[in-house]
């Protein structure tokens, strides 16, 4: 188990992957135990750490790297940190990007070509609806 996952377990007051998955799940957005286990070999997504920081009052830098105090001097105040482009994506967009990063090069090429075809079809349909040719 990674130190990052151990800090999240401590922050949420749970002791197992299953309990962590349950603590992070919401109606309509379940978190699987397999997803939680995968965080031991890769970083927890930044957007997820931000949500945990907001939920627990822990500093995100402490959750991520163990740096600084666990809590800010003012209880309940979550120190705002710069949001990366990835963090600004919707959960659906993040899932697409994560899946894209996980597949092989041949599959990425096929997906890029398929996406380009969908975009061309959408643009053509939009032009037809607006009366352009």
Give an overview of the whole structure.
With 133 residues, this protein is mainly alpha-helical. It is built from eight helices and no strands. It is elongated, with a radius of gyration of 20 Å. The model has no long low-confidence stretch (mean pLDDT 82).
Sequence-ordered SSE layout with sheet pairings:
Layout: H1 3-12, H2 17-24, H3 33-38, H4 46-56, H5 60-65, H6 85-88, H7 91-102, H8 105-129
Throw out a few tags for this protein.
0% strand, mainly alpha
Q: What is the element string, with H for helices and E for strands?
A: HHHHHHHH
- Which value, in Å, is the CA radius of gyration? 20 Å
**So what's the overall shape?**
elongated
Which percent bin holds the helix content? Answer: 55-70%
Beta strand %: under 5%
Query: Got a strand count?
Result: 0
Number of helices: 8
Structural class: mainly alpha
Roughly what is the average pLDDT, rounded to an integer? 82
End-to-end C-alpha gap: 58 Å
- State the assembly state of the protein chains: single chain
Largest sheet: none
Uncertain regions spanning at least 5 consecutive residues: none
């Amino acid at each position: 188990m990674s130190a990052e996952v151990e800090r999240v377990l401590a922050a949420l007051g749970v002791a197992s992957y299953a309990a962590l998955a349950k603590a992070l799940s919401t109606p309509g957005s379940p978190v699987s135990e397999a997803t939680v286990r995968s965080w031991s070999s890769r970083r927890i997504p930044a957007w997820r750490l931000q949500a945990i920081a907001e939920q627990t009052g822990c500093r995100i830098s402490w959750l991520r790297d163990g740096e600084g105090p666990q809590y800010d001097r003012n209880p309940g105040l979550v120190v705002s940190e710069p949001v990366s482009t990835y963090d600004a994506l919707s959960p659906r967009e993040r899932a697409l990007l994560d899946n894209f990063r996980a597949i092989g090069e041949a599959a990425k090429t096929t997906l890029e070509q398929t996406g380009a075809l969908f975009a061309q079809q959408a643009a053509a349909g939009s032009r037809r609806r607006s009366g352009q040719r």
